[in-house]
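Why does this matter for the project? Reviewers at the last site visit asked to see concrete outputs rather than summary tables. In response, this paragraph embeds two records directly. Each consists of the residue sequence and, immediately after it, the corresponding structure tokens. Nothing has been edited or filtered.
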Amino acid sequence: MPIEIRELVIRAEVDPRQSEGLQAGQGPGAAADREQLVRDCVEQVMEMIHQKEER
């Protein structure tokens, strides 16, 4: 018998000390790093969509 999950709760805690060094606009390569991060995220999402369509 399959199990159906009707609700999923996700919680995350952010440590402000760690996020201070990751603010946008810091350093010369911040824009390039952000663009690479966006490209990586889009690639992963597209891969997930492709896998879902194969099922």
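We now turn to the second protein, recorded in exactly the same manner.
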Amino acid sequence: MAGETDLGKLLGGMRPRLNPGEYVFTTIEGSATPDGVRPVVTVVEDEGLTLVLRRDEADRAGIGYEFVAGWITLNVHSALEAIGLTAAVADALTRIGLSCNVVAGFYHDHIFVPHARAAEAVIALKRLAADAER
């Protein structure tokens, strides 16, 4: 099934969902994920392996971090070549003073925001979706 490219349909159908838990961004040397750690995102960079994982897993593994995030999934099958979804989401969150880190999966986009304000971010994204449906 092909992903959606129409921005209006993407925004109107995104149904943002806050995943339970706290997530952290961290980096480790090398390219192997430590035993017992199941990241939700990995990115290979020249400086090391970036991991996004549950905070409790990082704590148990003794992996340091600085940013604690809430993880929001946009439950619309967005095409990887879709134009404007990331910009619209970032703009909506910018208007309420929130940073966001976006990761595109094959089926969905995932937004990581400061954990303390994650519920507020979901409200803003639901408002964006409702506005797009009008």
